[in-house]
């Protein structure tokens, strides 16, 4: 029986050290979680599996690790300042705060006209006016005061601050002075770091289309209502690919990546019945997307997005490139007045420049971990009527690959043998091997079932050549217990390397 409720998983995660509430001892910081000794292993294993598949096993992918602190212009031209946000403005006199577009909508026409002129925006285009004001907030604040924008609370003209966004992006200040010019963001997605490095990567690697850039890293969103454990949090990790293709080939590659990603999640152990591809209808699409397929997973709290695979057209590179007018960009992008790089591709045959289209498979690491835990959690009734909880994670993903257990803790020959064996197996580089000498053997098995350790290796009297029958024929053999079947086999210690390598191979 899989986990039926999130509470069951939350309890297991806390009890066994997978995941804890962030800042817990001070009452917790909402929307943050800390990965404990086992959680960090599981999460790393998932990320490594993704990296191996998408970077190492392919010949058309490069990796990247861009910075989390991001220049505000990156997120300006990406559209995040405008679309991840509500623009806000304060009246210094009344201390009232307003959403800028709502405030302007209700102003007398004469006031609005003055503003349009001040910001050099064509009359009647309120959206463009707001965007222009947000692009030049210092100028906009002054212009609002000069134009006599009224405060609805008093009906009197206000003394307006520069407008600013209040949105899901976390702001910070880079350098010692907290001023507008020093403002930067914690990235709300890893993707932008890839787009702005497109030319760097292309120049450094001489890639030909199609090719991709892959990145794993933290992203931050000031979610208004974080909930459902690690499903919706304010600090999370993403595994993102931006796959660059020729316009016209985008639909093929979009379908290709949906299939690839579905297959990969199944390889990670998620069952096909719990994975539902969902084609977003036109009205749900983000403004930059031509098509998006979400991979939904049947989480304990409901069917929700695990990964999104979007056809983002030439919006992203087109937004961040210089020379926009020369590149025949099809997406609607902001006029870029700051970029110093041509984020385009020169066709090796025709010599013509164009902006590649982008297919983006974007998956949440934390949502992945939650899905793996939910899928693996199993409550089993044993033949003797007892119940056990077992985490049936794929051995490759399990936080601990094998536990080496001395049968008797008070026999130095046995404990020393077990410690040496642990060190020998650890040196194979297969992941974490644990020397386990807490509790009796039954408790050790139970604990390792619950945290998903696929193999329990026990060093006993036979191992050290002290068999009950007085012979030494079982010397240097150990028992290996399988987590799922609970069956035990006896292997010579020299066979363990081959055994583990085989079982932990992808
Ligand atoms: N607040 C969050 N907490 C955890 N993971 C997240 C969060 N927001 C996004 N993700 C992950 O990043 C992936 C890509 O981000 P994207 O912007 O497409 O999400 P989204 O469509 O905004 O998600 P949602 O609609 O659930 O808020 C998502 O599929 C998800 O796995």
Question: Key terms for this structure?
Answer:
alpha+beta; binds adenosine-5'-triphosphate; GlyRS-like_core; Gly-tRNA_synthase/POLG2; elongated; 7-stranded mixed sheet; cytoplasm; 5-stranded mixed sheet; 16 helices; 506 residues; nucleotide-binding
Task: Walk me through this protein's architecture.
- The protein is α+β, with helices and mostly antiparallel strands.
- It has 16 helices and 26 strands.
- It has a seven-stranded mixed beta sheet with strand order 3-12-13-19-16-15-14. A five-stranded mixed beta sheet has the order 23-22-24-25-26, sandwiched between helices.
- A hairpin with a 5-residue loop joins strand 20 (377-381) and strand 21.
- Helix 2 (37-56) packs across helix 13 (365-376), helix 6 (109-119) packs antiparallel against helix 8 and helix 7 packs across helix 8.
- The longest helix is centred in the N-terminal third of the chain and has 20 residues, at 37-56.
- The chain is elongated.
- The mean pLDDT is 95.
- The protein binds adenosine-5'-triphosphate.
- Adenosine-5'-triphosphate binds next to strand 13, strand 16, strand 19 and helix 13.
- It is an enzyme of class 6 (ligase).
- Catalyzes the attachment of glycine to tRNA(Gly).
- Homodimer.
- It is found in: Cytoplasm.
């Amino acid at each position: 029986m899989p986990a039926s409720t999130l509470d069951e998983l939350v309890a297991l995660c806390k009890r066994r050290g997978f995941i804890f509430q962030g800042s817990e001892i001070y009452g917790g910081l909402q929307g943050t979680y800390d990965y404990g000794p086992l959680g960090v292993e599981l999460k790393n294993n998932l990320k490594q599996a993704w990296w191996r598949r998408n970077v190492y096993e392919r010949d058309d992918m490069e990796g990247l690790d861009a910075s989390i602190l991001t220049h505000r212009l990156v997120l300006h031209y990406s559209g995040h300042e405008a679309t991840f946000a509500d623009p806000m403005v304060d009246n210094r006199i009344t201390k009232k705060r307003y959403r800028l577009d709502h405030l302007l909508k209700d102003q007398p026409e004469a006031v609005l006209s003055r503003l349009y002129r001040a910001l050099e925006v064509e009359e009647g285009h309120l959206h463009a006016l707001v965007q222009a004001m947000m692009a030049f907030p210092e100028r906009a604040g002054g212009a609002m005061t000069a134009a006599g924008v009224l405060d609805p609370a008093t009906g009197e003209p206000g003394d307006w601050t520069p407008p600013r966004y209040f949105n899901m992006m976390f702001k910070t200040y880079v350098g010692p002075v907290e001023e507008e010019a020093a403002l930067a963001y914690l990235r709300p997605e890893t993707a932008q770091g890839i787009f702005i490095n497109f030319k760097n990567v292309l120049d450094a690697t001489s890639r030909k289309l199609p090719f991709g850039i892959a990145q794993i890293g933290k992203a931050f969103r000031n979610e208004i209502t974080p909930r459902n454990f690690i499903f919706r949090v304010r600090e999370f990790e993403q595994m993102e690919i931006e796959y660059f293709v020729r316009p016209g080939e985008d639909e093929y590659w979009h379908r290709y990546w949906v299939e690839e990603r579905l297959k990969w999640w199944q390889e990670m152990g998620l069952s096909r019945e719990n994975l539902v591809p969902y084609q977003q209808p036109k009205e749900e699409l983000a403004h930059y997307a031509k098509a998006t397929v979400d991979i939904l997973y049947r989480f304990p709290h409901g069917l929700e997005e695990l990964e999104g695979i979007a056809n983002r057209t030439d919006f992203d590179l087109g937004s961040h490139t210089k020379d926009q007018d020369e590149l025949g960009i099809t997406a609607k992008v902001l006029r870029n007045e700051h970029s110093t790089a041509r984020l385009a591709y020169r066709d090796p045959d025709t010599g013509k420049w164009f902006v590649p289209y982008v297919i983006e498979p974007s998956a949440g690491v934390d949502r992945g971990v939650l899905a793996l835990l939910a899928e693996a959690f199993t409550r089993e009734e044993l033949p003797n009527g007892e119940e056990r909880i077992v985490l049936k994670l794929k051995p490759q993903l399990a936080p601990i690959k094998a536990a080496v257990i001395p049968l008797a803790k008070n026999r130095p020959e046995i404990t020393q043998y077990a410690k040496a064996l642990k060190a020998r197996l650890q040196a194979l580089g297969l992941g974490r091997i644990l020397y386990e000498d807490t509790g009796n053997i039954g408790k050790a098995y139970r604990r390792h079932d619950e945290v998903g350790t696929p193999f329990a290796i026990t060093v006993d009297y036979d191992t050290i050549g002290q068999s009950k029958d007085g012979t030494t024929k079982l010397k240097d053999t150990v028992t290996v217990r399988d987590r799922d079947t609970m069956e035990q086999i006896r292997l010579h210690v020299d066979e363990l390397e081959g055994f583990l390598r085989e079982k932990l191979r992808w």
